[in-house]
Amino acid sequence: MTGTPTTTIYLATRAGLFRFQAGTLALLGGENEPVTALASLPGGRVLAATRGGKVLRAEPDGAVARLAHAPVDEPFVSFLGLPHAGRGALLLAATSRG
């Protein structure tokens, strides 16, 4: 039996990272902390950065892993995920200083 595809929308907000799926809005991470950057990764995963320097990876099932703090003194403001042959994705990140 094949299920119908479900559209998933990730939202980077001042209140954290949210996912809208099947008519339900759920907070995934970064509670009460603005999300400053968001990038799509292979396999339906999403990478998010918060103003406080957290880097989060959301899985398609809604699980969230905190990867690390940003290795710079200010939060990331932009992510760009590019396909990288045989290695998933190449991620470029920027701060307000470049």
Give the arrangement of secondary structure elements.
Blueprint: E1 8-13, E2 16-21, E3 24-29, E4 35-40, E5 46-50, E6 54-58, E7 64-69, E8 78-83, E9 89-94
Explained architecture:
- The chain is mainly beta and 98 residues long.
- 0% of the residues lie in helices and 53% in strands.
- It contains no helices and nine strands.
- The protein has strands at residues 8-13, 16-21, 24-29, 35-40, 46-50, 54-58, 64-69, 78-83, 89-94.
- The strands form three sheets. It has a four-stranded antiparallel sheet, with no helix packed on it. It has a three-stranded antiparallel sheet with strand order 1-2-3, with no helix packed on it. The chain has a two-stranded antiparallel sheet with strand order 8-9.
- Strand 2 and strand 3 form a beta hairpin.
- It is globular, with a radius of gyration of 14 Å.
- The N and C termini lie far apart (49 Å).
Main sheet overview: 4 strands, antiparallel
Give the quaternary arrangement of the chains: single chain
SSE string, helix = H, strand = E?
EEEEEEEEE
* Number of discrete helical segments: 0
Biggest sheet, spatial arrangement of strands: 4-5-6-7
